[in-house]
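By convention, each integer encodes one residue's backbone shape. The lines below illustrate.
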Amino acid sequence: MKFTQIRSRILFLMLFLQAMALYGQDNTDYPIFNCDWTSTWGKIYWTISGDQVTGWYGTENKLLTGTLEKDLNGTYVLRGEWSRKNNPNKRGGFSFVFDSPTSFKGTYWYEGNPDATSKWKGACKNRGSAADIKPANYPDFDCEWTSTYGTIRWSVSGDLIMGWYGEGDEHKTLAGTLLKSKSGNFVLEGAWGDRDNASEKGGFHFTFDSAHSFKGNFWHGHDHETLVKWKGSCGEE
């Protein structure tokens, strides 16, 4: 193996480990939200923002809103509320336990009656990643990107996208998960950091309006209210 290949793999591993530290979680068993989910009550379409998960099932009038966390056994659990946009009286809670990245078993109940639970299970049918089948608007991570904060060089591993931005040393990092929004655009959400300055870190949200451009925001630390614009494009745009 060539030295450059070894160096590249070492850098990728270092960035992966840093990303896990920034996320505060081990993504090995992290649910694959962007594949095709079916469930007891119809298909589920998810949207992710940090540990907050929203979505709809069956029809767009049937909503899910919850928080993803790990239980004492290290298993991902999504707990939250279900509701109906067209019928405010129909609402309640749910708890989904992900026994793998592509399946969950759980329960739901009606508001005011948490002891009367019913089963709700789901599974992911497409066990590939978003990168396995690339539509025309899939981001071109192989091309050279310029952005508000310098050149971005990407590295892709399934739905996990990592990169370096700025000029010079590869100490300013990006790491996130690529998802697909309801509108069909690809969205990259994750964390940025600076290996030379541990206090410099935060989150970002990039929406790719084409394969060669994105518009988005970033924030420092956990200050999600103070957003700063960040856009980028590929040389072919």
Remarks:
- The domain at 33-124 is CATH 2.40.160 (Porin).
- Residues 75 and 99 are 7 Å apart (CA to CA).
- The first strand starts at residue 37 and ends at 39.
- Confidence is low (pLDDT under 50) at residues 20-28, 127-132.
